[in-house]
Design goal:
The protein has a 6-stranded antiparallel beta sheet. The termini are far apart. The chain is built from 2 helices and 6 strands, in the order ββααββββ. It has a single domain, classed as Hotdog Thioesterase (Thiol Ester Dehydrase, Chain A, Roll). It is α+β, with helices and mostly antiparallel strands. The radius of gyration is 15 Å and the shape is elongated.
């Protein structure tokens, strides 16, 4: 991933946005981004979204807690290829107790074609 840019979520619940460019080694023998690589993109976007809100992983560890992905559902809709610019949109749908529910999507920046959707359940742990 290269050319990362994160837009901070605001108080109105607007999603965080991360842009990246697919590197050649992130594609598989079929010439498109491997399905497992998308999971990595999604995780990076969630971490960047938290950091943009002032809640880095280092700060959470310092305070004695962390957030873990406990459930992940991904739908792969269309492929991305080496060099494609992507945007990952991340927002928190709900926070209930120690759990958070995230919704994410990955789009091609140029065509705005939806490539991936994901729902993630996170849990705070000490």
């Amino acid at each position: 991933m290269t050319e990362q840019r994160v837009e901070r979520s605001d108080a109105n619940g607007e999603p965080a946005r991360l842009q990246l460019k697919v590197r050649h080694y992130e594609v598989d023998q079929y010439g498109h981004v491997n399905h497992a690589q998308y999971v990595h993109y999604l995780e990076v976007a969630r971490i960047e979204a938290l950091e943009a809100l002032g809640l880095s992983l280092a700060e959470m560890r310092r305070q004695g807690y962390l957030i873990l992905a406990v459930e992940l559902s991904v739908k792969y809709l269309a492929p991305a290829r080496s060099g494609d610019p992507l945007e990952i949109v991340t927002y928190v749908r709900e926070i209930r107790g120690a759990r958070s529910f995230w919704v994410q999507e990955i789009r091609d920046v140029v065509s705005q074609r939806l490539l991936v959707t994901a729902e993630v359940t996170g849990a705070f742990a000490t």
